[in-house]
Structure formats: structure tokens, C-alpha cells
């Protein structure tokens, strides 16, 4: 790096520092997601004061070029000022039956095909997997607990784990008792139980649009109707929600608690509280899907919507799939007023969840390693996000729009007119790469030009090469 700072020139010193950072970026010394040199280090290197470097960093932050992370320093962002977010499509407020299973099946097959680079799956913990820690704990549990871990566990879950989940809620300000928690096979089973606890075939379920396709698949299988509520940059559009509730007899809502899958958008506390108030005023149960609650990039603890419930109509579904290990299938439901119904459904559906896996997760939480890894994981995911956005902006056709996720491990990409994402999905699969086509995230066939791409992977040349190849295929589709 050139360390030439002119103290006699006309330009302010901090502006020269900004230019130096720009030059480092242009030369490839600094890349999106990289940490900028510390204030102390750069001030010593350039022989300027720490406040001068700080002023430069604050200005870069104001311009959206770097982000400050509490206790971690400043990090270079993708050129977000040049990347626009996907646009909101036109909506007709009408409940529709869902038909998405065939393509979901193809998307799942693509993820699990041998030697496929899985950019189509949302498993953010794989960016910093705790496999060695979990293996160590598993060996210890098997050695010490004896055959009882091989038995059926209690129907509603392993008590010490339920106590810890309840304790974690209490620490976040939610009054949850361990008696209120049922451990499930992942959040997917929790969502299935929740939906069947409050609604039946033919009922109207309001969902965000776009939304996680697993919810749509449940609605399809249970013979319910989906009513899509548009989302804006900061989550569900409240006016649309109000108007939809006025126009239709909505039986329940299924909304992400904080971070939307696939866009990564994050709802403010005020908005989340308003949603609970609007719904409880009309006695409509809300099922909140909180699987990404601990993976928001803002280091502050955020309350689940459960915390704002006054009438007990909020059901919270979550799991350790995104933060510990998806294969363990350990999730839970906090079912509030619907507890008896939920317990009956759990018994009927799967009797109980793996006791061994619950035991291991319980020990993992108790050791403190879970929280330590979450901290690390958030940092890695934030860095990966910037790299992914920059790489897509560089490799995909002009006018591609990319979301700016506030948490989780996926970006939502809108391709230019003329580029169909289901075609891109098929071409990518032929090249050994999975992505998720946009239509899967809508009950009414929206998002034909959108795709979800995961950055929740250990970042390496294989991932970079895969993204570039998908970009080339998108160019090819446009030119055909
Ligand atoms: C938003 C959302 N909810 C629920 C699930 C299901 O989670 P689990 O693997 O714990 O069943 C997923 C998994 O991708 C998800 O993205």
C-alpha cells in the first residue's frame, strides 16, 4: 500500500485516507467483507492521528462503503450504492390454492445430487460448522449416559433441554415456561403442528410474499389456501396486511419472526409489535417462524413476536437447524393457548424426537460453545454476504438486483427481463450447481426472474467459481 499522505496539500488528511482505502480496494488488496486495518495500525502506518483515520472511516460508513461492527472494527462492504434491491411485484389480494410440490422435489434432489455445489440450500451454520465440538460431546454422552439415551424420549422433549430453551427466552425478556415447550423434529414439524392446531382444510392462511417454500408446501398438503401479503425492504407491508384482513376471513398468519427467507429483510421491533396488536385485536392466531432469530447481524438481542402477545395467540416455532446442526432435527414449538392440541398432534405425528440428539444439543448449550460459535458464525456470514453480493454484481448480467440481507445465509437475486430463474436453475443443475428458483417462494407463481443463492458455506474458490458459472449461464440465457 502506498503510504504517501501529503500534509502540505490542499486535501484534508481524512480525505486522503479515504482515497487510499479506495486504491486498496481497486488493487484487490482489500475485498468486500474484509476487515479494514485498525485505527491504531493505519494511523501508525500513515503517520496521521487516530481521529483522522476515525473520521475517514466514519465518512466511509456514511457513504455505505464500510460497516462498523461493535467490538470488531470496520469492514468493507460490497458496493451497495451500485446494487439495487429486487422490486416488489404487483399483487392481487386473493387466496389461492398452492401447487408447488413438483419443483420443490426437483430443488431438493438438486441439493443432494452427488458432487453438487449446494448454493440452493439455506444451512447457514455450515459457514462455521461446530462438527468437531458436537462429535466430542456426542462421544461423551454415549459413553456416560448409557443405554437410556437409546430409548424413546418423553413425548414433549428432554426436560433439561426444555429448561434451557425456556431460560434463553427468559433472558431475552419472554416469559416462557419449560412446561410450555414441545421439542419437535426441526422447525418444519413445529410449523406443521402449529398450522394444524389452529386451521383446517379450506381455511385461509396469510403468508409473507416471498416466503419460505416449506410453509407453502405444508399449506398445499393440508388443503388450505394461501393469501400472500407483500413485503417491503423492512418486512411485511402493514397497509397490505390491514386491507387483506378487512377483505378476507383469514384463519391464521404464518410470518417470519425477524429475518425473511429468502430476502434476508429484517422487521423493526415497532413493526413486529404492530403486527401482533393488529392480529390479536381481530383474534387471529399468528405462527411466527423464528429459525433465523439468532442470526441477525445486529448484535443486539431481538425479542420474538411472542413477547408482544397479550392474548396468548402467538405460536413460536424454531430450531437449532440454522445455528447448530440441521441433521439433528431438534426444533421446538411454544404453543401458548393451543398447547393441548399441539401436544396431541406431536404424539400422533412422531411420538417423540431423538433423545440422543436433544441430549447432545443440551450439553452443547450448557458448555457455552453454542453461544461462542453463534458469535463467530454471524461474523463469517456477514463477511460472506458482502463477498457474495460483490461477486454476483460482478458476474451476473447488468441490471441484476440483489437483496441486502440483515441476517441469515441467503441473498435474493432478481435477474433482468428475459432471464427466467427456473431455466437458470435447470442449467445450473446440469453444471453441478444448485440454486433455488424464485417461483417456489410464491403461492401464485410470482418471482419468475428471482432466485435464492446461499452464502452459508465455507467461502472458497469452489464457491466463487460456482457463482461465476451461474452468472455466465444467466448471460447465456439472456442472449439466447
Ligand atoms: C424459514 C424457515 N423455516 C423453517 C425451516 C425448517 O427448519 P428445520 O430444518 O429446523 O425443520 C427452514 C429451513 O430451511 C426455513 O428456512
From TrEMBL:
InterPro entries: Aminotransferase_I/II_large, HTH_trans_reg/aminotransferase, PyrdxlP-dep_Trfase, PyrdxlP-dep_Trfase_major, PyrdxlP-dep_Trfase_small, Tscrpt_reg_HTH_GntR, WH-like_DNA-bd_sf, WH_DNA-bd_sf. SUPFAM superfamilies: PLP-dependent transferases (SSF53383), Winged helix' DNA-binding domain (SSF46785). It holds the Pfam family GntR. Residues 11-79 form the HTH gntR-type domain. GO terms for molecular function: DNA binding; DNA-binding transcription factor activity; pyridoxal phosphate binding; transaminase activity. The keyword Transferase applies. It comes from the Bacteria. PROSITE patterns: HTH_GNTR (PS50949). Keywords: Aminotransferase, DNA-binding, Pyridoxal phosphate, Transcription, Transcription regulation, Transferase. In the C-terminal section; belongs to the class-I pyridoxal-phosphate-dependent aminotransferase family. This is PLP-dependent aminotransferase family protein. It comes from Aliikangiella marina. The lineage of its organism: Bacteria, Pseudomonadati, Pseudomonadota, Gammaproteobacteria, Oceanospirillales.
Amino acid at each position: 500500500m502506498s503510504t504517501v499522505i501529503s500534509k502540505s496539500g490542499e486535501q484534508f488528511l481524512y480525505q486522503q485516507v479515504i482515497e487510499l482505502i479506495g486504491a486498496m480496494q481497486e488493487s484487490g488488496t482489500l475485498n468486500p467483507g474484509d476487515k479494514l486495518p485498525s485505527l491504531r495500525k493505519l494511523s501508525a502506518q500513515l503517520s496521521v492521528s487516530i481521529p483522522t483515520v476515525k473520521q475517514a472511516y466514519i465518512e466511509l460508513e456514511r457513504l455505505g462503503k464500510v460497516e462498523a461492527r461493535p467490538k470488531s472494527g470496520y469492514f468493507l462492504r460490497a458496493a451497495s450504492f451500485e446494487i439495487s434491491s429486487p422490486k416488489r411485484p404487483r399483487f392481487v389480494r386473493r387466496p389461492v390454492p398452492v401447487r408447488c410440490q413438483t419443483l420443490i422435489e426437483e430443488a431438493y434432489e438438486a441439493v443432494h445430487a452427488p458432487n453438487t455445489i449446494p448454493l440452493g440450500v439455506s444451512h447457514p451454520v455450515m459457514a462455521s460448522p461446530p462438527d468437531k465440538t458436537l462429535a466430542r460431546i456426542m462421544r461423551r454422552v454415549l459413553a456416560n449416559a448409557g443405554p437410556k439415551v437409546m430409548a424413546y424420549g418423553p413425548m414433549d422433549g428432554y426436560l433439561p433441554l426444555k429448561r434451557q430453551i425456556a431460560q434463553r427466552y427468559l433472558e431475552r425478556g419472554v416469559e416462557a415456561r419449560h412446561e410450555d415447550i414441545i421439542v419437535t423434529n426441526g422447525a418444519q414439524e413445529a410449523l406443521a403442528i402449529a398450522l394444524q392446531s389452529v386451521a383446517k382444510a379450506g381455511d385461509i392462511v396469510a403468508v409473507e410474499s416471498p416466503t419460505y417454500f416449506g410453509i407453502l408446501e405444508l399449506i398445499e398438503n393440508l388443503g388450505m389456501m394461501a393469501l400472500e401479503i407483500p413485503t417491503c425492504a423492512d418486512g411485511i407491508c402493514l397497509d397490505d396486511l390491514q386491507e387483506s384482513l378487512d377483505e378476507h376471513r383469514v384463519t391464521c398468519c404464518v410470518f417470519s419472526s425477524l429475518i425473511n427467507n429468502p430476502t434476508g429483510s429484517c422487521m423493526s421491533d415497532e413493526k413486529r409489535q404492530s403486527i401482533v396488536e393488529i392480529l390479536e385485536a381481530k383474534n387471529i392466531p399468528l405462527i411466527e417462524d423464528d429459525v433465523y432469530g439468532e442470526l441477525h447481524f445486529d448484535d443486539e438481542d431481538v425479542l420474538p413476536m411472542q413477547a408482544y402477545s397479550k392474548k396468548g395467540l402467538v405460536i413460536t416455532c424454531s430450531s437449532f437447524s440454522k445455528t447448530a446442526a440441521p441433521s439433528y432435527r431438534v426444533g421446538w414449538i411454544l404453543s401458548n393457548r393451543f398447547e393441548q392440541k399441539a401436544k396431541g398432534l406431536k404424539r400422533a405425528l412422531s411420538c417423540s424426537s431423538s433423545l440422543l440428539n436433544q441430549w447432545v444439543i443440551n450439553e452443547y448449550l450448557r458448555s457455552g460453545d453454542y453461544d461462542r460459535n453463534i458469535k463467530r458464525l454471524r461474523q463469517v456470514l456477514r463477511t460472506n454476504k458482502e463477498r457474495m453480493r460483490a461477486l454476483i454484481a460482478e458476474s451476473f448480467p447488468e441490471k441484476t438486483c440483489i437483496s441486502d440481507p440483515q441476517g441469515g445465509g441467503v441473498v435474493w437475486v432478481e435477474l433482468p427481463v428475459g432471464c427466467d430463474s427456473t431455466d437458470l436453475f435447470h442449467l445450473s443443475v446440469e453444471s453441478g450447481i444448485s440454486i433455488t428458483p424464485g417461483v417456489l417462494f410464491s403461492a401464485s407463481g410470482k418471482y419468475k426472474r428471482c432466485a435464492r443463492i446461499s452464502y452459508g458455506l465455507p467461502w472458497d474458490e469452489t464457491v466463487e467459481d460456482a457463482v461465476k458459472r451461474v452468472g455466465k449461464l444467466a448471460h447465456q440465457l439472456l442472449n439466447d
